[in-house]
Amino acid sequence: MLFKAVTGRIPLLHSYEPKPGLLGLATSIRHSIKSFFTIRLRTMTLKTANEQQIDTALSGIVLQRSSHTGYLSHLKGVDFSMCDGQVGAVLVSPFSVMEYLRVVVSVMSPSKTRGPLPSALGIVKSRSITIESTRRQQALVVDDTHTLPLPATCEVLDKALNINAPEAFWEANPRRENSKESIKVANLPDARESQKYRDHHIPFFSYASEERFKDLFGALREDSKIDSIYITLMLLSTLLATVGLFADSSAVVIGAMLLAPLMSPIVSFSMGLLRADRSMLKSSLNKIFTGIVLALIASALLALVLPNVEMTAQMKARIHPTLLDLAVAIISGIAAAYSKSFKEIIQSLAGVSIAVALVPPLSTAGIGLGQGEWIIFAQASLLFFTNLIGITLAATFTFQALGYSNAVKSKKSILAILLIMLVISYPLYLSMREIVVRQEISRATGYDRFLVGNKYIIVKSATIRHDEGKDILNIRLYVREVMQREELNILKKKIESAFGRELHIDATVEYIL
Fold first, then answer.
1. What is the pLDDT along the chain (513 residues), one digit of tens a residue?
2. What is the rounded distance in angstroms from the CA atom of residue 116 to the CA atom of residue 423?
3. In 356-410, which residue ranges form alpha helices assigned H by DSSP?
4. All CATH 2.60.200.40 domain ranges in the chain, comma separated
5. Which is it for the CA torsion 425, 431, 436, 441, positive or negative?
6. What's the CATH code, domain 437-511?
């Protein structure tokens, strides 16, 4: 072996010389990117000259004598020398595609300051290294020219090669005997961890550690069970939110959000979907349903007792859900799952509860139910289920990304929830579109009330629909005097200039006496 020997699949890392320039690097990455998703960890055994044995799972090994060339020369701890009487091996064992990409970035970094050895790598230096593999087809490719079947041994032979080099070379590379082996394999998976990855394509994200897995599952199972504390907090937060809605107090409503315990069973439900855990699914769904029923009954009864006041701003804010509310729910679901996964940031869950309102929409729906206002009930319920669906889906895929399952086990349930999300997205889109239309009309006129031909016109409502390739604007106007054709044409031009396109306008004019 003059330069290197490679076994396994380690795209980009085994290149002897990096291609020059950014274009060369981009070309190497493009040719190797497909290989990232076919990396497997194989059970391999290494034996050193001092009879040290290393059993682990690796995607590949690079054997080399010198650390002055190639990408791996950038790594801290890779100080191989052709004059120390030892052969060096870099062991590669990524737990995920993302981890492998981090290794590639670190070894390709042009920085002269070497950081710590990446978590997916190990280093072995010895006078001889024997490599064995459970895979019969696996081989060792030497100097990119010939192939040896495994097991194979790489051993340093004294004075086997005469090198004709100038004196400056020997001064820079003095001969030094080093009989002490160096083994740095703390970053590699142990026998128990390697069982998760062995003979499978590595996942895009790493699997969660055994400790994190047990801790989180224990907490989520407790969160999925109904107890007296949950019922008490659910009733108190609903009553507090209902009073805050009637009082039009944002501070009281925020306090109710903090008190509300609904987020925890939703996160548990997400994990149940991911793992297809029927017990967790059943208990968390039962807890969510119980909370919804309690909130609706409590707020409806309180609405019957309290005076029937006009709709407040806090109520109005929860009866016009849009796609923005769905986006908030999805982001909050990611944050909730992430916060729940790590003990050190679990206190952030309170902030997530404020970001995505769960109890206030339920309280608003209960008010509509108690007062017989079915539109309020329907719109507020839409907002609540928007939050519920968004959080559930986002938390499910976040748990998968954090390594709590290599795949979504309950695929049919996820597809059903996705279908529901698509269904509720349509009215959210229409509501969002109506807001955009009103803003465009407001820009066209400057105000909801404007002057055309010395006559005041009030825009009461406006919606846009697409029919047969045309944008049709349905607009409802309040006027005090009869509108002439010329005045209507002026109004049409003002509206079209704001939209930047031609519109077909259907106007309903109502007279104020």
1. 877 888 888 877 765 444 556 666 666 666 666 677 778 888 888 999 888 888 888 888 988 876 555 556 556 656 777 777 788 888 888 877 877 888 877 777 655 445 677 778 888 888 899 998 877 677 888 888 888 888 899 988 877 777 788 888 777 777 766 668 888 888 777 656 666 656 667 777 666 666 667 778 888 888 899 999 999 999 999 999 999 999 988 889 888 888 888 888 999 999 988 888 889 999 999 999 999 999 999 999 999 888 777 788 888 888 888 888 888 889 888 888 888 877 666 655 666 666 677 888 999 999 999 888 888 899 899 989 998 999 999 988 888 877 777 666 777 888 888 888 888 888 888 888 777 776 766 665 555 666 777 777 887 777 777 677 677 778 888 888 888 888 888 878 877 776 777 778 888 888 887
2. 50
3. 359-371, 374-401
4. 4-197
5. positive
6. 3.30.70
CATH number of 4-197: 2.60.200.40
Within the chain, all domains assigned CATH 1.20.1080 are found at 210-409
CB contact set of 163 (below 8 Å; sequence gap of 6+): none
With vertex at residue 63, the alpha carbon angle to CA 62 and CA 66, rounded to the nearest 5 degrees, is 110
Q: Is the dihedral of CA 77, 82, 87, 89 positive or negative?
A: positive
Distance in angstroms (rounded) separating the CA atoms of residues 384 and 390: 10
Structure tokens at 482: 């009869």
Positions of CATH 3.30.70 in the chain: 437-511
Distance CA 296, CA 430 (A): 26
Fold of domain 210-409: Glycerol uptake facilitator protein (1.20.1080)
Whether pTM > 0.85 for this model: the answer is no
CB 49 within 8 A of CB 128: yes
Contact 229, 120 (CB under 8 A): no
Determine the longest span between alpha carbons in the chain, in angstroms.
Answer: 111
